[in-house]
């Protein structure tokens, strides 16, 4: 019997050297959290991973102990929960069912497992702690703020408001055993104790509609506090609370008021007594600190002459500071933040700096990035350095800013004149590659600047490389575009005066993104944002949180609600989100049916197949009817598709058969009406025969029986002949194009679209210098009213296709969360090798294949406690070798002229003659 050992980490994988054939458990998580403090779930879910260098390992049982102290857990005193030995192979989302935990309780837990190779030892312990679970426990904690403007502040199109510096001296009566702070700082905050910033997060907390819900963050601050005098300090920035365009177009742009905060510091002393320190009117503040303005659209102004040394330390004289006032709460319910904050995730060094005829300098970062610029400068007191950010340059070498609309995107730093000064902003971010520098008296050097890349603190889980360099660069562009637009919610763009969480941009995009980033908690939070924005009658907005009051009642945009939930189930095995959101999704479906279903067709559409390649390179939106797909076609087909998803959700959440029967009947009526009105049996096309009009019924299985191939052949003709082998779809059609082409046997055509370098294509963006994904296929020539150079909506299903159809890394929807992996690459599409990996919730999946004429070499890694179906493109088993040996009938079967290997966990080398 092989000895089994368990090693545990909190989130970050700890690679432990172990002996041959031993097992380690890594990535122990509670509710998939980066920070396990402040859990806002009464029955959290526990997960762990198994890793080993042995093969064919299966978990057969687990045993979890949960205790209220590490001492009890060490002695196996599970006073909170003893699961007993549970015969199960589950390692993900195992629900805690022990004693009910109260606010601020701590739970220490460990696990051991049984496998087909033996029993493990108990793991090391891990911890989670509960947040503040009831509104009543916040009631005595006052919201404090100051609802007035000061000198230099303004409200309007270019709203300005200086940061508020807040401090509170406290005295602790004894030695501190433990301490946690629970803080809500609206709109953004940085928190300090005795001069030390707490946490490495930036731009915290994540944005919400603050009238619906407000997120609090929790930090363990035991090591920062001392017996006796201490000082708590907070800088309050504006964020989305004091909106970027405060009280400007109030019919459209939602704003929430002046910055404010509420906080509890809970201290436990070594003698067992406790003390809670809360925000009240005794806290003092000044609006005259160095951050003179901070506006997400327009930038940050910092006057170093106004710095207040040691303002957040003991002994600072705050006698001329103002007292904070009790202010109205934001209105939303208080929730523990269950998704990570943003963080500086990377750094970018600039590649060049050049002079302009105006005496300014242009800094080139070499990469369109999202974040900010750190500068190092020397000069006289009062000298001013300004930095204006943009994505590209005009022909004369100056910044191209027309596409920023009225966003000023400018930071300014005023020197204090004390040697080398290092500065970076606190409460803004920019989308940029180029920076115009003003105020330098001589040409600065590159080492004076450093780009700070900012996005949500999530793990990169996917890698991809193949034999086509254009496709590799597209993947890199996608990486930079996706990560840069993660800002506590998925936004559309990071640079102009928009930056909104549009639903339609992520309907399918979230699925592709999940292969590259561990975005589970981000999108679970976003589903809550959508739920909170739903109207009482059932409507869902175009943007959620609804910072813009856009309620267009479409289907292709609003359908993201269901599609993202389906992604979380397929990729992460998350049934919880489906059960939580099902009633609201159903409410929206009924709302749309009641208001817009006419003659069994869905008549309401707002955006069409957004951003199809237009007839002229200078225009944004096509007006050529041959390029456009009728909105009723889009909404009817998509509504039909969503009904199929809702059938699956009804089964998952255990709903009555009545719901399923309802969805079936309605879907059948829509399908019949759709084909009656839009299917042309003479040329096997739909509507006006756009690629989008044809690909949707093909992808959704709406085409009449035995005619799918005819419709597909017609669609291929449209792509290959009419469009000369180029893409012609917009946001909607591109979501299903690549996978549908491959499913029907034309992976080679999908490969052509993916590797094209001429317009319109993703490769055309690369050929024209793009380092992210454009908003438009003609983003380098289109009208600047809408040509962002960092959008992700046009990726469609491309990244899904990379992983599922080229690499062969796909989760079997019948066994979600990659419990079973479908490895079925299209080896004939046009690539000669693919090397990809994906860290699933069960562990790392790898697929590395190479073709040399008619010989296939393929290395695959299947995580512990999962299985894989591996498809070899030959019907002759004698031509296949597994780890150098002939395969036997126990490990394979034949399916559609392919040999299908059924593999358990391990790393395998497969070779075949094709």
Automatic annotation (TrEMBL):
Q: One Pfam family for this entry, by name?
A: Bac_rhamnosid_C
Record keywords: Hydrolase, Signal
- Name all Alpha-L-rhamnosidase C-terminal domain ranges: 808-880
Which first-to-last residue range defines the signal peptide?
A: 1-19
InterPro entries named among the record's database cross-references: 6-hairpin_glycosidase_sf, 6hp_glycosidase-like_sf, Alpha_rhamnosid, Bac_rhamnosid6H, Bac_rhamnosid_C, Bac_rhamnosid_N, Ig-like_fold, Rhamnosid_concanavalin
Question: Which EC numbers characterise this protein's activity in its record?
Answer: 3.2.1.40
A biological process term (GO) from this entry: carbohydrate metabolic process
Q: Which domain of life is it from?
A: Bacteria
Residues forming the Bacterial alpha-L-rhamnosidase N-terminal domain are 175-345
What are the residue boundaries of the Alpha-L-rhamnosidase concanavalin-like domain, all occurrences included? 356-455
Annotated Alpha-L-rhamnosidase six-hairpin glycosidase domain ranges read: 460-806
Q: Name one GO molecular function term.
A: alpha-L-rhamnosidase activity
Reaction catalysis annotation: Hydrolysis of terminal non-reducing alpha-L-rhamnose residues in alpha-L-rhamnosides
What name does the UniProt record give this protein? alpha-L-rhamnosidase
């Amino acid at each position: 019997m092989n000895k089994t050992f368990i090693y545990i980490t909190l989130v970050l994988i700890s690679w432990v050297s172990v002996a041959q054939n031993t097992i380690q458990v890594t990535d122990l998580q509670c509710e998939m959290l980066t920070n396990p403090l402040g859990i806002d779930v009464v029955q959290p879910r526990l997960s762990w991973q198994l890793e080993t260098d042995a093969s064919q390992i299966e978990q057969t049982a687990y045993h979890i102990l949960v205790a209220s102290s590490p001492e009890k857990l060490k002695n196996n005193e599970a006073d909170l929960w003893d699961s007993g030995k549970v015969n199960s192979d589950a390692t993900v989302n195992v629900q805690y069912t022990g004693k009910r935990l109260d606010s601020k309780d701590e739970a220490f837990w460990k696990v051991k497992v049984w496998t087909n190779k033996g029993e493990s030892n108990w793991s090391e312990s891990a911890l989670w702690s509960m947040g503040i679970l009831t509104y009543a426990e916040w009631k005595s904690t006052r919201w404090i703020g100051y609802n007035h403007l000061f000198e230099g502040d303004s409200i309007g199109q270019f709203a300005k408001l200086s940061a508020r510096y807040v401090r509170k001296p406290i005295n602790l009566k004894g030695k501190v055993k433990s301490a946690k702070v629970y803080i809500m700082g609206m709109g953004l905050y940085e928190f300090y104790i005795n001069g030390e910033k707490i946490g490495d997060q930036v731009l915290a907390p994540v944005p919400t509609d603050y009238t619906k819900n407000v997120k609090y963050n929790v930090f363990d601050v035991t090591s920062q506090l001392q017996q006796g005098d201490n000082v708590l300090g907070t800088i309050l920035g504006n964020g989305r609370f004091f909106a970027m365009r405060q009280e400007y177009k109030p019919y459209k742009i939602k704003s929430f008021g002046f910055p404010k905060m509420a906080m509890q510091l809970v201290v436990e002393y070594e003698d067992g007594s406790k003390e809670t320190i809360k925000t009240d009117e005794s806290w003092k503040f000044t609006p005259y600190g160095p951050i003179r303005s901070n506006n997400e659209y327009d930038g940050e102004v910092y006057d170093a002459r106004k710095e207040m040394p040691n303002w957040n330390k003991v002994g600072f004289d705050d006698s001329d500071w103002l007292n904070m006032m009790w202010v109205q709460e934001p209105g939303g319910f208080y929730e523990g933040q269950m998704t990570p904050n943003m963080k500086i995730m990377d750094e970018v060094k600039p590649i060049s700096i050049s002079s302009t005829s105006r005496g300014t300098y242009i800094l080139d970062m070499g990469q369109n990035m999202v974040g900010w610029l750190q500068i190092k400068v020397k000069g006289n007191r009062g000298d001013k350095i300004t930095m204006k950010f943009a994505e590209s340059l005009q022909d004369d070498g100056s910044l191209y800013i027309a596409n920023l609309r009225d966003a000023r995107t400018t930071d300014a730093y005023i020197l204090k004149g004390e040697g080398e000064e290092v500065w970076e902003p606190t409460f803004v971010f920019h989308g940029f590659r180029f920076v115009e520098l003003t105020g330098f008296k001589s040409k600065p050097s590159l080492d004076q600047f450093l780009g700070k890349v900012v996005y949500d603190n999530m793990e990169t889980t996917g890698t991809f490389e193949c034999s086509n360099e254009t496709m590799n660069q597209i993947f890199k562009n996608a990486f930079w575009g996706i990560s840069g637009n993660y800002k506590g919610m998925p936004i559309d763009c990071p640079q102009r005066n928009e930056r909104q969480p549009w639903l339609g941009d992520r309907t399918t995009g979230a699925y592709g993104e999940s292969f590259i980033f561990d975005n589970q908690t981000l999108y679970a939070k976003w589903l809550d944002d959508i739920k909170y924005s739903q109207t009482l009658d059932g409507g869902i907005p175009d943007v959620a949180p609804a910072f813009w009051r856009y309620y267009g009642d479409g289907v292709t945009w609003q359908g993201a609600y269901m599609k993202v939930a389906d992604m979380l189930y397929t990729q992460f095995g998350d049934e919880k989100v489906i059960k939580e959101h099902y009633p609201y999704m159903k409410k929206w479906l009924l709302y749309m049916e009641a208001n817009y279903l006419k003659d069994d067709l869905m008549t309401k559409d707002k955006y069409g197949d957004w951003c199809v390649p237009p007839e002229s390179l200078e225009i944004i939106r096509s007006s050529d009817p041959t390029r456009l797909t009728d909105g009723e076609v889009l909404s009817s087909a998509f509504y039909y598709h969503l009904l199929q998803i809702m059938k699956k959700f009804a089964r998952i959440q255990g709903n009555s058969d009545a719901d399923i029967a309802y969805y079936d009947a309605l879907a059948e009526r829509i399908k019949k009406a759709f084909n009656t009105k839009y299917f042309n049996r003479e040329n096997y096309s739909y509507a006006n025969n756009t690629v989008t009009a044809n690909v949707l019924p093909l992808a959704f299985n709406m085409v009449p029986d035995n005619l799918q191939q005819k419709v597909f052949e017609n669609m291929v003709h449209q792509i290959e002949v009419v469009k000369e082998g180029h893409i012609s779809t917009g946001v909607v059609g591109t979501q299903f194009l690549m996978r549908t082409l491959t499913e029907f046997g034309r992976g080679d055509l999908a490969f052509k679209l993916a590797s094209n370098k001429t317009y319109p294509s993703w490769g055309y963006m690369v050929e024209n210098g793009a380092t992210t994904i454009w908003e438009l296929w003609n983003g380098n020539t289109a009208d600047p009213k809408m040509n962002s150079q960092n959008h992700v909506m046009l990726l469609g299903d491309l990244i899904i296709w990379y992983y599922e159809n080229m690499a062969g890394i796909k989760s079997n929807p019948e066994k979600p969360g990659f419990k079973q992996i479908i490895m079925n690459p299209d080896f004939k599409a046009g690539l000669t090798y693919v090397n990809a990996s994906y860290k699933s919730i069960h562990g790392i999946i790898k697929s590395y294949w190479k073709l040399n004429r008619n010989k296939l070499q393929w290395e695959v890694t299947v995580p512990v406690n999962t299985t894989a179906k591996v498809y070899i493109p030959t019907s002759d088993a004698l031509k296949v070798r597994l780890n150098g040996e002939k395969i036997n009938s126990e490990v394979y079967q034949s399916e559609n002229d392919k040999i299908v290997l059924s593999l358990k966990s391990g790393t395998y080398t497969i070779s075949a003659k094709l």
